[in-house]
Design goal:
Layout: H1 2-16, H2 23-30, H3 34-40, H4 44-48, H5 52-64, H6 72-89, H7 91-103, H8 105-129, H9 136-160, H10 167-182, H11 208-219
Helix pairs in contact: 1-2, 5-6, 5-8, 6-8, 6-9, 6-10, 7-8, 8-9, 9-10
Length: 222
Amino acid sequence: MRDALVAAAFQLFLERGYEQTTVDDIVTLAGVGRRSFFRYFPSKEDVVFPDHERCLADMTAFLGDGTDEDDPVQRVSDAARLVLRMYAENPTFSVQRYRLTKKVPGLRAYELSVVWRYERALAGYLRERYAGRRDGSLRADVVAAAVVAAHNNALRSWLRSDGHADATASVDHALGYVRTAFGGAPDGGTTEEAEDVVVVISRRGAPMWRVVQEIESTLGQD
């Protein structure tokens, strides 16, 4: 019944438009009552995004199953790939939803709220992994936002191709940027800032002022 309601809704959205379609129209086409609709979907907006609650639950469970040996950035990147898998399960539906969302501001706002919940799930996991580290909370929020931004950039490119491009390759490429920037996060101990090491070759017997001058000259070249 749930799938029938989604199918009926999108048929009407495509034929009449989102704003012109009511819940009564959807249940009439699906052959069910209003009570059945609201048993599955709290609102008309929810029927446009029927799988996000399940995906968010899967992501939360995946992050919770991680171990201390997992690289945090890799773990949240793999968690983001669960969203891609959800979209790729039904490319036709995903492309239709993408086109519909672009046309309806209310749906775009709803989608952004869903994306924010994914980002908070990733950030929550990272905050635990970076607990006690210098700027741990800041790093968690920045990495989570970067993973979501990279994933969504690749996902939108795939949707704009009508689902014909290689979604997995695009997302892997995008998340690679995040791994390059944030990989090797401080997780096994406190990471100290790298110190500059300057090697100066001076003539034996040179006065100390000359040695100091050469050091200052070398540092001034940075």
